[in-house]
Amino acid sequence: DTTRPMYVRAAPLGTRFIVLIAEDRSEAERLEEVRRDFIANISHELKTPIGAVSLLAEALEPAADEPDRVRRFATRLSTEAARLAQITSDIISLSRLQASDVLNAPSEVSINQVVSRAIEQNRVTAEGRGIDLVLARAKHAKVMGDAQTLEVAVHNLIANAIAYSPEGTRVGVGIDVDDGVVSIAVTDQGIGIAPEDQDRVFERFFRVDPARARATGGTGLGLSIVKHAAQNHGGQVRLWSQPGRGSTFTIQLPQAATDAGSAADRTNEG
Ligand code: ADP
């Protein structure tokens, strides 16, 4: 316990220092609470698919003579297994991102390539749901960082835009560079997010409508991963949304210093 000796030593310096230590302690308490909540949430999230897998496995044997039921149970077993795999991989991504503020070995990353890949990964889902997924604007942009982490972040935004939009709408992705800031914007014409939920959607496991999110295969971790990925790159995520009209999520990142000259040239060319 290092707090008490510091407290005693600090006392003669006046009340200001004591206040600082008091704040420090409550920050530690807050972090501990966040950690406890996270573990409680993970256990809760895992319980549902694990319970389903056990029940289905038990139900399989008595159904052995009924091929239709066996087939149905098998399909549900793979759905639950896929869900477990998704939750596990999201938890791993998130704890990696939270473990370090700075990326280990940042390299120059083409945002154009990151965005094209993320779009391609979502192409089939978009088509399946009757959504027009397009690259609306694309300036040439480079940042320093980790391509795979950024790809996961952009992928999550596009996957959400598709999941929370009705059939026949459009999801547009844009890349802009302005004054040393690279913006990747994902815009949908979907259900939107109420003002009171707009900060909360970035919290781990928060979902506006848990039943619906579960049906779309969401884990509630997607946007926290996006937020931490942006922050680890010295950036941030912005959200504009109106219920019933749609949402725009924008990842803003510092432009790579080596890229500044060439991007400015292109802008001047129009
Ligand atoms: P999930 O896996 O549930 O999608 P996320 O962390 O990615 O988890 O998102 C958290 C919640 O934010 C979602 O459950 C949903 O309620 C809301 N949300 C995220 N993206 C959108 C969007 N593009 N349009 C409307 N709601 C969204």
From TrEMBL:
Its EC number is 2.7.13.3. Keywords: Kinase, Phosphoprotein, Transferase, Two-component regulatory system. Residues 41-257 form the Histidine kinase domain. It is found in: Cell membrane. Its main location: membrane. It catalyses: ATP + protein L-histidine = ADP + protein N-phospho-L-histidine. It is an enzyme of class 2 (transferase). Signal peptide: none annotated. One of its GO terms (biological process) is cellular response to phosphate starvation. One of its GO terms (cellular component) is plasma membrane. This is Sensor-like histidine kinase SenX3. It comes from Mycetocola reblochoni REB411.
